[in-house]
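Our preliminary data section would be incomplete without showing what the modeling component actually yields. Below, a chain of 95 amino acids is followed by its predicted structure, encoded as tokens that our downstream tools consume directly.
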Amino acid sequence: MIGRKYKKTYQLAQKVKVKVLKVDILKNQIDLELVKEGETETDAEKTIKNLISKGHNLVVEDEWSLGRMTAATKDGNILKAAANPRFMQGYAIGR
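Predicted structure:
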């Protein structure tokens, strides 16, 4: 396989590290990006991998792309949440 942009050659079964950029369920497409040597995962990427490894079914969107669900936290017995609907219906979730 030859890369589109930089024409780098990859062989079948060659191990490479990639980062998931975008998942489009309707088109059955996953956009990936090669992780450069020495580059480390972000905390968000580690959390996503950890949740998937525990069996959670996730749909990961681009940062700040949804704008509907904002934040939720629990402070003792009090559930605190906030939402910014951005001209749409807004949701604040938590349990």
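The chain is about 10% helix and 25% strand. The radius of gyration is 18 Å. Preliminary results of this kind motivate Aim 1 of the renewal.
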